[in-house]
Amino acid sequence: MRMGRQTELVQARIEGAALDVSHLPSFGFSHRSLMWWGTLGLMAIEGTVFALAVGVYFYLRSFASRWPMEDMPPALLWGTANTLLLLASLWPAHAAKRAAEALDLKGVRFWLVLTSVAELAVLGVRVLEFQTLNCRWDGSAYGSIVWMILGLHTLHLLTDAWDTLVLTVLLHTRNLEGRRFVDVSENSLYWYFVVWSWLPLYAVVYGVPRLG
Fold first, then answer.
1. pLDDT tens-digit profile of 18-50?
2. For position 148, which CATH number holds?
3. Which of 50, 62, 155, 170 is deepest in the core (most CB within 10 A)?
4. Is residue 141 part of a domain?
């Protein structure tokens, strides 16, 4: 009996000392979110892929006496227009991120719609870019690597545009869960990566061929 009583007292002390976390939020932003760490890891991997593609570009160029080989450099109009559009798209994406972190549902819905429109516009102009590269993907080593670089970046545009559209629909039609605000925040973070990674790629695709 005495041993049993001591066991009960010890158990009661353990339970009394247990940390009550029921009042803590079920989600967090920035480094407090696993999604944030996953997004950073994804950006590191995909940034490495971009770097490898650029490395291949300059490797091939080092063997060519003429660059572009038999082709004209890509036309600047649509590539430059899309670069400016990408930079402008940072505004609604950033506003959506700030609204999400403030748990402002009305603001998130508004800015997600604008972000979706901007991203779809970027994809539309990208179609025009492919038509003015002045090379075929199978015409030469130059054409292949240019199409590869632009194709890789377009894949990222498609991925984030799809995510943004899905989030926009969810936040307008479903019962809202707090973690959806985190999804919006991390989606904007990924869009930052897509936009800023394009700037060095733009310099490679559109600038280097004009250097001779």
1. 555 444 455 555 565 667 777 788 889 999 999
2. 1.20.120.80
3. 50
4. yes
Domain tally, the chain? 1
97 Cβ contact list (under 8 Å, min separation 6):
184, 185, 188, 189
Q: Where are the beta strands (DSSP E) in the chain?
A: none
Own/partner pairs, 168-171, CB within 8 angstroms, 24+ separation: 168/109, 168/112, 168/113, 168/115, 168/116, 171/105, 171/108, 171/109, 171/112
Residue-wise pLDDT for 44-78, tens only, equals: 999 999 999 999 999 999 988 888 987 789 999 99
Is 39 among the domain residues? yes
Domain of residue 69: give its range. 30-211
Examine residue 131 and state whether it is found in any structural domain, yes or no. yes
The encoded tokens of residue 122 equal 């970027």
Task: Indicate whether 201 belongs to any domain.
Answer: yes
- Is this model's pTM higher than 0.70 or not? yes
